[in-house]
Write a structure and sequence with these properties.
single chain; about 375 residues; alpha/beta; Quinone Oxidoreductase, Chain A, domain 1; Rossmann fold; seven-stranded mixed β-sheet; six-stranded parallel β-sheet; 19 strands; about 25% helix; NAD; Glucose 1-dehydrogenase; D-glucose binding; NADP; EC 1.1.1.47
């Protein structure tokens, strides 16, 4: 079977045939991979920038890929939720089996840290021609969104984080006088797929959204910002920054402290900072004055990673709903499509103008 593999803690990747025969269990299905998405985590693994990577037990190689979309080819005899021909996306993280969160399907809040993640740590991923998976880790996708279903996994992380924001902000009355959120402003730092999804989802809630980056928008980013009625801001231009209203929520999808810490002076009382992006090397000091400001103004900070099965289902619902309103936008988010043999062109470095790059495995 053709697959894209790495050797953990070694720079580089390889497209090769893997001798991996997966028997079909009673509660399992066999899935033909149609598309896999590529994100910063995949590039971090290929370029040996992530220390937590590990291969499955007994292997010295790891099959990449945690963003997948496929079609069921075969079902086990006890499978009840799916049939041959169903489109599905797999959940990425699998629980430790010990802590309560993992036992109730909230492995995104695993307390032991001994979970596995497909294509990242301890479990082969989905950048391969087919894979076998338990039905409990699969989410059905309607045929109507099969062209954008590969976006389900990144969106699921955003859905989870905004759910957390809404729960935390119940600490006070955060709605506007009319009960909505149209009087609230959101900065989204970073304009890749995650930043774009934060922007779309926050606009869906009614927030006034400002998409921030250290440069002018690409044509695709300009289209997205105008289509969702958000404002793109180049943070290196003082004239644009001076016009920014204060924020009620700042979402960082970049992972660079130097990008979001200077913005904290522009956050409103009782605001919230969401940290999602992960990077290495960037250093920006936090002084006591900033800490005092955050304390005195009730600023909440949450870090969010991964998603659970319900978040995946919500993501499918959002994509289905947005398909009618933002169909062209969602298709434009997929800026690069390559074959497995060309995967190095999007896995080793980020293509110019990228929002989302994907690998096409089959029609």
């Amino acid at each position: 079977m053709k697959a894209i593999v790495i050797k953990p803690h070694v720079i580089g990747m390889e497209v090769k045939n893997i001798d991996l025969e997966e028997k079909l269990g009673k509660n399992q299905v066999r899935i033909k991979t149609l598309y896999t998405g590529v994100c910063g985590t995949d590039r971090g693994l290929v370029n040996n920038k992530l220390s937590f990577v590990r291969a499955p037990e007994g292997w010295d190689e790891l099959i990449l890929g945690h963003e997948a979309f496929g079609i069921i080819e075969e079902v086990g005899e006890d499978v009840t939720e799916f049939k041959k021909g169903d489109y599905v996306v797999p959940v990425v993280r699998r629980g430790c089996g010990v802590c309560l969160n993992c036992k109730i399907g909230r492995q995104d809040f695993c307390e032991t840290g001994n979970f596995v993640e497909a294509g990242i740590r301890g479990k082969h991923g989905f950048m391969r021609e087919e894979f076998v998976d338990d039905e409990m880790y699969l989410v059905r996708v309607p045929e109507s969104i099969k062209d954008i279903a590969v976006l389900t996994e990144p969106l699921s992380n955003v859905v989870k984080a905004i759910d957390e924001v809404m729960q935390v902000q119940r600490r006070m009355v955060w709605n506007c006088p009319d009960g909505a959120y149209d009087c609230r402003n959101a900065y989204v730092v970073g304009t890749g797929p995650i930043g774009t999804f934060y922007s779309i989802l926050l606009r869906t809630y009614g927030f006034n959204v400002f998409m921030l980056n250290r440069r002018d928008p690409s044509p695709a980013e300009e289209y997205v910002s105008k289509r969702i009625n958000a404002q793109f801001v180049n943070t290196t231009k003082s004239e644009e920054m001076n016009k920014l209203p204060k924020a009620d929520i700042i979402v960082d999808s970049s992972g660079f402290p130097s990008a979001f810490i200077p913005l904290l002076s522009k956050i409103n009382k009782n605001g919230i900072l969401v940290l999602f992006g992960t990077e290495t090397g960037d250093k920006t000091p936090i002084d006591a004055d900033l800490v005092s400001f955050m304390v005195e103004n009730n600023i909440a900070v949450i870090g969010s990673v991964n998603a659970n099965k319900m978040n995946f289902k919500e993501s499918v619902n959002y994509l289905t709903m947005w398909k009618e309103k933002y169909g062209e936008l969602l298709n434009r988010m997929i800026t690069t499509v390559v074959s497995p043999e060309e995967a190095n062109t999007i896995l080793e470095k980020k293509p110019k103008g990228e929002i989302k790059s994907v690998i096409k495995w089959s029609d």
